[in-house]
Amino acid sequence: MGRKRNAPLNKLFAWVRRQSTKVKTFLAAACVICPLVALKLLVHDHNQFFVVSEAVHFAGILVLIYKLTTQKTCSGLSLKTQELTAIFLAARLYCSLFMEGDIHTILDFVTLVSTLWVIYMIRFKLKSTYIVELDNMPLYYVAVPSAILAIFIHPYTQHARIGRILWAFAVYLESVSVLPQLRMMQNMKMVEPFTANYVFALGVARFLGCAHWIIKVYDSAGKYLYLVGSGYIWLPMVLIAEVVQTFILADFCYYYVKSVMNGQLLIGPTDSGRLRVLIEFSHDSPDPKVKVTVQIRLGHRDFAPRVLVPAVGAKEIIVVYPRVDIW
């Protein structure tokens, strides 16, 4: 029944894949413009986009908390993304205490505390389930460029210079903080559902933040970009940062929506690949001639991948799976 119900969706996605690059680009632009138009017409106070964006981010953290407390595992979760999130939230909270002191401050504080709890659980309570070798993007790859950019391009306001630099640093770092998580997903070749829900929440939050800036620029016929900034550069850089993060998450969100509609498990868009499976042997060393059979079920489809026979004393096997069309 589920396959019949989702047949039109499968046909739609198959039709999209067959189209030319120009048609795909047009369809992608339409999928972005239509929600923006709807938000502009339906929401009169566009500043509320930031409040909703921060609330959605907090909801994503709640999903992680539920996963960690109920399943007692942090498998598939990037500690480095959580640490980057805590860094930019701490910087933004410090600035917010002196610059705003409103609902944004409360949301940032609650989200920061929740993120620190997630970091504590990964580092200490659930350390044995953390796959550190797959979370291999160095923090300085994203933190250092963000800091350098913030020193040179930051807002010109009446506040202290350190506060203005920290605010810019938080904006830039937030735009790339999800990269370690996406890198870890690529390394794993498969995405755990709760982690997928968390990343999708980040995508929705970033779209709302980006929508705020785009609508502001549209309403002012572009003049909003030059209201304040370091040499007319700050606000355009904020918009660029929002757009960059939105596009970073857009591809994942597309496959996420597609998988949810089809009731499938997420797996990276790839040709045939390898899935590392940790195993425990009942004897000191397995018989290298023993044939290992593995069955993988992805959504509604079964796969019987080729398995590389483990060597004597091995503690893991390598599963070679065929190409699949889902993310």
UniProtKB/TrEMBL annotation:
One of its GO terms (cellular component) is endoplasmic reticulum membrane. Keywords: Endoplasmic reticulum, ER-Golgi transport, Membrane, Protein transport, Receptor, Transmembrane, Transmembrane helix, Transport. It is found in: Endoplasmic reticulum membrane. The keyword Endoplasmic reticulum applies. Its main location: endoplasmic reticulum. GO terms for molecular function: ER retention sequence binding. The keyword Transport applies. It is a multi-pass membrane protein. It comes from the Eukaryota. Signal peptide: none annotated. The chain crosses the membrane at residues 21-43, 49-69, 105-126, 138-156, 194-215, 235-257. One of its GO terms (biological process) is protein retention in ER lumen. Belongs to the ERD2 family. This is ER lumen protein-retaining receptor. It comes from Sesamum radiatum (Black benniseed).
